[in-house]
């Protein structure tokens, strides 16, 4: 199981639900909503801030071949 967490203002949603029509209407999953400034702040400090601190800036592909491969995989990802 892997959880999804969304913090928007003082509202936190967390659970296993993928945000697409299939998961919302056909799968048996759960999502909890907490309307709490304290919970939002706690998740921001313990979950998001450490990840953001470790994040590294991504670089765009520089070579023509690299760009072509990225474009091709992007298009193929819809059918794989």
Give a quick rundown of the structure.
By secondary structure, this protein is of the alpha+beta class.
Describe the structure.
It is a single chain. The protein has 3 helices and 3 strands. Strand 1 (4-8) and strand 2 (11-15) form a beta hairpin. 45% of the residues lie in helices and 19% in strands. It has 80 residues and is α+β, with helices and mostly antiparallel strands. It is flat.
Could you name the key traits of this structure?
19% strand, 80 residues, 3 helices, 3 strands, 3-stranded antiparallel beta sheet, single chain, alpha+beta, 45% helix
Radius of gyration: 18 Å
Class of secondary structure makeup? alpha+beta
Can you give the mean pLDDT? Answer: 86
Tally of extended strands?
3
Distance between the termini: 22 Å
Largest sheet: 3 strands, antiparallel
Number of helices: 3
Proportion of beta-strand residues: 15-25%
Low-pLDDT stretches are none
Principal-axis shape equals flat
Order of helices and strands: EEHEHH
Helicity range of the residues? Answer: 40-55%
In spatial order, strands of the major sheet run 1-2-3
């Amino acid at each position: 199981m892997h959880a999804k967490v969304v913090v928007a203002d003082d509202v936190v949603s967390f659970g296993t639900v993928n945000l697409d029509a299939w998961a919302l209407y056909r799968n048996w999953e759960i999502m909890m909503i907490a309307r709490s400034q304290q919970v939002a702040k706690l998740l921001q400090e313990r979950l998001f801030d450490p990840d953001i601190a470790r994040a590294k800036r991504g670089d765009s592909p520089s070579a023509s071949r690299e760009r072509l491969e990225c474009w091709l995989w992007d298009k193929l990802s819809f059918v794989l």
